[in-house]
Amino acid sequence: MKTKLKIRTGPRRNLCHVFGLTFLTLSAIGGVQAADVRDGKQVYDISCAPCHAAGVLEAPRLGKKEDWIEREKQGFELLLTHAIKGFKNMPAKGGNPTIKDKEIENAVNYMLASSGFDQYAQKPAPGQAEQKASQADAGKKKDKIRKASSVNQFNRLMPSSSEWNPPPAKDGIHDPQSPGTLLLQEPKVAFDSLSKSKSGNRVDWVAALQGGEIAPRFETMSDDAKPVVMDLNIVREVKGSMPDVVYPHKEHTEWLDCSNCHPAIFIPQKGANQISMASILLGQKCGVCHGKVAFPVSECRKCHSKQKATTTGASN
Prior knowledge:
This protein has twelve helices and three strands; from the N terminus they run αααααααααββαααβ. The chain is mainly alpha-helical and 316 residues long.
């Protein structure tokens, strides 16, 4: 059964809020279930970094040996017990009961080793180093292939799968030096239960909206304000064999106020807007959003969705 999350995406009048504040409204301390035991860094990045990176509520900071000296003197077993069962301001398992005890042990080892206690550095299992080296080589080969074909990557939302939904500190949007950035939940975790898509940030936002998985907020200060939804499809005829374009107002106005598009981007008058793929790829017209905060223009059939009427030859 799919879990439905009520996500407040911020004011509709600010396009960045529609997708950006999703990270804030989900719990900043989360985790993912996996069949294998994750290493210490993986667990730290997902569930420990929000507090231990910035020292929230006096949590010992990663890389600051002075924060850990007195704690380390108490012994590893006590530190591990506190991490698993909770202690003072720290909830049990960082607030995520799905994390395995062994994974917590790995995380504690990682934090101590990264803070100057070399005796806690975990040695790779036999053959593990060779396996990682082989995986790294394979990854480099894939990167070379991707870079070699980058001339065909005309849309910025077409990175390799390893680059989808990077953590906020690495997405090029948030300030990586800000402690608040580390409190934001990673998109890969935040979006895990939402309807899937094959493009963009891999979320089908329309399906998520229709399924009640998210609940966009119309006004900043009011929970009761309702959107003015316009159920009107605009069909733009396309020359050649490509299907005609259907612009659905309903799906757009469920997210956004009309003033986001009219009249600065589109003049609300028939025949007043000259739209071409060239202008869209340059970030104009539909390209103001698509390829930035909406699905990329490489998903042709999402827009070109109305088949042309077939004609039969005249009979004698």
